[in-house]
Structures are given as structure tokens and as C-alpha cells.
Amino acid sequence: MSTQEDNVKEVSEDGAEESAETTSVQTGKTDPGNGAEGPIILFFLIGLLISLIIGWVIFPKLLYSHKKQPFDFNHALHMEEVDNGCESCHFFREDGSFSGAPGLAQCIYCHDDLQGVSPDEVVFVENYVANNREVPWLIYSKQPDCVFFSHAAHIKGAHMDCTVCHGYIGESDHLKVYEENRITGYSRDIWGKNIAGLKKNSWDRMKMDDCAECHMEATGRTSSVQTKKDGCFVCHK
Ligand code: HEC
Ligand code: HEC
Ligand code: HEC
Ligand code: HEC
Ligand code: HEC
What pTM was estimated for this model as a whole? Predict the structure, then answer.
């Protein structure tokens, strides 16, 4: 121990100004005569701050293009009007497939004519109902074409709640802006809300890892997607 300390002393005594700096850092004492560290730390902090702002604020803004839905839709309002809850618009067809986003058929029963004075309803009735044109909804949870997803397996089979994967869209007053990742073409609901890949809620992200994570928990298996039972064909066409 003591020989090591002696060595350090010796070096710093022999050396030039730089080694004096090393000793002051090692001993934790600040050298009042040495003002060079202040600006360096300041520049480091400014640089760090700039990269953090670019990484967390500017990059995500550039990465995602924002698209608006054809018109706004109020889930909370409609849940008070319909008789059959969510299933009035999102239901299973007789062949077991899921209807997904509703078509005009689910709306014209009430919107043959204007129901109120909302400008969104005017757009809906004049542009779509009157022309018998389906609404081109943007689907937040849209998976790439190579992925097979079955609502029946999860809702009828595993009795899962819509919020587990979609969050609280069904209780919302407004449709949120659709954000599309410019590089991958994925919606932000699939690619992840958080740029670092962190997730707070089960519905923050829906990538392959997220499907696999829940399947492992649900089935008690500790394997990844690569195992025999969880073959790629389960989710890929
Ligand atoms: C009166 C019809 C209607 C009812 C009732 C309704 N929805 Fe919707 N829902 C819509 C329309 C229209 C959209 C817009 C489609 C889009 O672009 O997402 C939508 C979209 C959604 C989406 C987003 C799908 C996606 O990824 O884009 C979810 C999730 C959803 N509804 C869940 C629910 C739940 C849960 C309930 C019941 C609490 C419910 N909805 C009741 C009409 C309805
Ligand atoms: C059970 C009847 C009923 C059905 C079915 C229904 N609506 Fe409505 N809708 C209403 C009523 C009532 C209002 C409220 C009008 C007001 O007070 O402004 C409304 C309001 C609206 C508005 C304006 C408010 C808002 O949500 O932003 C839009 C847009 C709309 N509906 C679209 C749709 C679409 C699209 C569908 C089919 C997926 C649909 N509605 C199905 C009854 C219905
Ligand atoms: C296990 C997760 C999960 C659950 C639970 C779930 N969804 Fe989905 N949902 C998805 C995925 C993934 C997609 C995208 C499917 C695709 O692109 O092939 C989707 C798509 C949708 C769409 C858009 C379909 C389209 O393309 O038109 C609607 C609407 C929807 N879900 C509503 C619901 C409702 C309502 C419930 C509850 C009854 C529900 N989902 C439960 C994962 C889930
Ligand atoms: C929160 C949990 C959860 C999430 C997230 C989830 N699943 Fe599932 N999934 C289940 C459960 C539970 C079952 C039913 C397991 C069974 O029947 O053995 C299931 C079954 C399935 C099946 C039917 C499997 C079979 O053998 O018939 C497919 C396909 C599937 N999931 C695809 C997906 C895809 C794709 C995703 C991601 C987009 C996904 N799942 C996300 C829980 C989940
Ligand atoms: C539990 C369901 C599930 C299983 C099992 C699964 N995948 Fe996937 N895979 C997905 C989903 C969902 C996506 C789209 C989201 C993403 O890119 O993470 C995807 C995306 C991919 C992609 C990228 C395709 C693209 O267009 O972005 C490749 C490559 C892929 N999977 C390969 C595999 C291989 C190889 C296996 C078998 C070892 C496998 N997957 C098993 C759900 C699954």
C-alpha cells in the first residue's frame, strides 16, 4: 500500500502540470489556482444536454410522421348510444373472424341523417354516408402483412380484455393522431411509445418480443419463440 502511494507521489512531483491535476483529483482536493476544469465540465454538460434533447425530443419528432384520421370519433359518446357495447361495432363474424374497424353498415342505422351539430359528423355524413363510401380508418395496431393475429384466440380463448393490448381507446373522447415510423412504416403503437424501447404499460408496444413475452408467461414455458411448439408458423403466414 504505502509503496504504491509513494510511487504516485513521486510521479506527480517529477511530472509536469498534468500530473498535478491527477493528484488533486485523486485526493479529492480542488486546486484553487486551476481554472481549466470548469469550462471543460461546462462544455461537457452543454454537449450532453444537446444530445439528450436531440435524442429524446427532436429525433422522435423527425422519426414519426403525423397523420390525421379522416374525422374524429368519440367512443365515450357512442357507448351511451349503442345497445350492445363494444360489440355493436367490433364483433366476431359467424366464421369466427373479427370485424375490426367498423364499416358503414354499423353506422347508417343512426347516421342516415345528421344526429347533431358536430363538424366531424358533417364530414362523415356528407363525404362518406351520402356517397356510400367506406371510411379509410388508420389502424393504430396494424401489424405487417407477414404476421397472423387472431382476436378469437385471445378474447374467446384466453378471455383477455381489450385494454391489455390497446389501452383505453374504447373509453376515449377523441381518436389520437396516427404516428407512422418513417423508417419502418410501423405505427407507433406497434413500434413503441418510448424511443429507448422501455414500456410502462402492456399496450405501449406490440413487437414480436412483446407477443412472445406474454405467451411465455401465459403458457408457463420459459422458451423463446424459437421452440418447436412456438414455431414461427404460429404467427407468420
Ligand atoms: C359506434 C361504434 C363503436 C363502438 C360502440 C366502439 N367502437 Fe371502437 N372504434 C370505432 C371506430 C369508428 C374506430 C376507428 C377505427 C380506427 O381508426 O382505429 C374504433 C377504433 C377502436 C380501436 C382502435 C383499433 C386500432 O388499432 O386502430 C379500439 C382498440 C377500439 N375501437 C376499442 C373499442 C372498445 C374496447 C369498445 C367498447 C368499450 C369500442 N371500441 C366501442 C367504433 C366503435
Ligand atoms: C346508436 C346510434 C349510433 C350509431 C350506431 C352510430 N352513431 Fe355516431 N352518433 C350518434 C349520436 C346520437 C351522436 C351525437 C350527435 C350529437 O349530439 O352531436 C353521434 C355523433 C357522431 C359523430 C360526431 C361526434 C364525434 O364522435 O366526434 C361522429 C363523427 C359519428 N357519430 C360517427 C359515427 C360512426 C363512424 C359510426 C359507425 C362506426 C357511428 N357514428 C355509429 C349515434 C350513433
Ligand atoms: C392480445 C392482444 C389483443 C387483444 C386482447 C385485443 N386486440 Fe385488437 N388488435 C390486436 C392486434 C395485434 C391487432 C392488429 C391485427 C393485424 O394487423 O393483423 C388488433 C387490431 C384491432 C382492430 C383493428 C382491426 C382492423 O384492421 O380493422 C380493432 C378495431 C381491434 N383490434 C379492437 C379490439 C377490441 C374491441 C378488443 C377487445 C374485445 C381487442 N381488439 C382485443 C391485439 C389485440
Ligand atoms: C398479454 C398476453 C398476450 C399477448 C400480448 C399476445 N398474446 Fe397471443 N395468446 C395469448 C394467450 C393466453 C393465448 C392462448 C394460448 C393457448 O390457447 O394456448 C394466445 C394465443 C395466440 C395464438 C393462437 C396460438 C395457437 O396455438 O392457436 C396466436 C396466433 C397468437 N396468440 C398470436 C399473437 C401475436 C401475433 C401477438 C402479438 C401481436 C400476441 N399473440 C400477443 C396471450 C397473448
Ligand atoms: C408470438 C408470435 C410470433 C412468433 C412465434 C414469431 N414471430 Fe416473428 N414477428 C411477430 C410480430 C408481431 C412481428 C412484427 C413486429 C416486429 O417486427 O417485431 C414479427 C416480425 C418478424 C420479422 C420482421 C418482419 C418485418 O417485416 O418487420 C421477422 C424476420 C420475424 N418476425 C421472424 C420470425 C422467426 C424466424 C420466427 C421463428 C423463430 C418468428 N418470427 C416467430 C410475431 C411472432
Answer: 0.85
